[in-house]
Amino acid sequence: MGIDMQYVIEGFMVAIQPQNLFWIALGGFLGTIVGMLPGLGPATAIALLIPITFGMDPTSALILMAAIYYGAMYGGSRSSILLNVPGDGSAIAATFDGYPMAQKGQAGQALAISAIASLIGGLVAVVGFILLSQPLAQFALKFGPAEYFMLMIFTLSAIVALAQGAMVKGFIAMGVGLLLSTIGIDLQTGVYRFTGGNVHLADGVDFLVVIIGIYAVGEVMYNYLTIDRPLGEKKNIGKIWITKEQWNRTKWPMLRNGPIGFLVGVLPGAGGAIASMISYSLEKQVSKKPEEFGEGAIEGLAAPESSNNAASVGAFIPMLTMGIPGSGTTAVILGAIVMLGLKPGPLLFENNPDMVWTFINSMFIGNIFLVILNIALVALLVRILDTPPKTLYPIILLLAFMGTYTLNFSMTDFVILIVFGLIGLVMKILQFPVAPLILAVIVGSEMEQNLRKSLVTHDSAWGLMTASPITIGLVILTIISLGYPLLTSWLKKRKLERSMGQ
Description:
Layout: H1 5-15, H2 18-36, H3 42-53, H4 58-83, H5 92-103, H6 107-140, H7 145-161, H8 167-181, E1 184-185, E2 192-193, H9 207-225, H10 244-266, H11 272-286, H12 298-314, H13 316-322, H14 328-339, H15 348-351, H16 353-376, H17 378-381, H18 389-408, H19 412-429, H20 435-457, H21 461-465, H22 469-501
Antiparallel strand pairs: 1-2
Keywords: Membrane, Transmembrane, Transmembrane helix
Domain DUF112: 21-439
Pfam families: TctA
């Protein structure tokens, strides 16, 4: 399936319409701010905005939510560089050399290179998106119920496996999510399941309320526990541009880590945090001056920044082509766009090519807008870091409750919201990964239907797993995704025991 230039041009023309430019700018701006504020993240911002998107055109809503996601990748490094406090997991690697640069009086240069690296990573990833998305969508047309069921099993396994050191907790979270997805009327028999006689639960627990509760209410509750924690001293910004020597040191790290981040982002369950750490580690290994890493090496900042923004773009590929989110944030976006009437999957590219190409072009425009925003207005943006948490968090809670009420105009949703806010708080305290629960709630019902359809054709679990070369391949990938962390953990433990024995 080749690229139809007519759709590309039409998509670009729609993307540059004033209302879409507005959503790109608004999403990028909000994403930058959310990314900057420690303790929040793009998933929280998108969860809060879901009710607002209901009245929007689905394409514009997708553009807005995507701009928040990759905008947060730009903003996340601001607090990492200036305060040594990452805005979210994707920005952790930016503290390694970004903060030391700020301590040396190079904060402005660090902020500039993080924005430039994010731009290059984002543009590289959009090109990768164009090249990979359509072949992957074409491949996904071969999927039947058995293949989709095994794909969902693989995705859930991959997300659980990435909860390093907490796989059991990941399985528990996934199990709770799958159980929640069974509440409501059985779609095949019409039987009420686990509703407790509550008519409001006939359609199941609204996963959007679950998302808002865990990501918004739970995060705010958790942040209240550490609200008096002192932050690092904010450094003066200084000159906001890089020298020719710094450009020469960073251009290749940015270019080679963009594709790496993109490919990591495509993998289910991976994301910006893993992509940036891989890129930082790789860049240190290939550097001619590895001893400078951790002391303010500018390429040690550029590489992960390029990578994490590329990963945020790559995460949209499995979501749009197969309906499987590549990260926790895209899981939230998937839930939102399904509610808006879009059906992500292989046929999306055939049925809605105008929407797909408008979205792709919007990412090009959004990345260019964001680099301008993050360099030209950096002095203004960093003042947001001075916002007192005691002012910010009540506003987020108010928006969460208002947004939840507008979903179904039901007071019962308030109870569900508070319950899942508390669940999110407990999960955060006990260090349970949230993504497996959210993903299981979203795909659980579809997964159950595909399993039941598969068992009509294949009369056993073995028959389902060996139904086609695709299902066999997915079974192998599932085994690898679960076995690899266990194997590496065992090897590390053995190596440690050997070193202690010597």
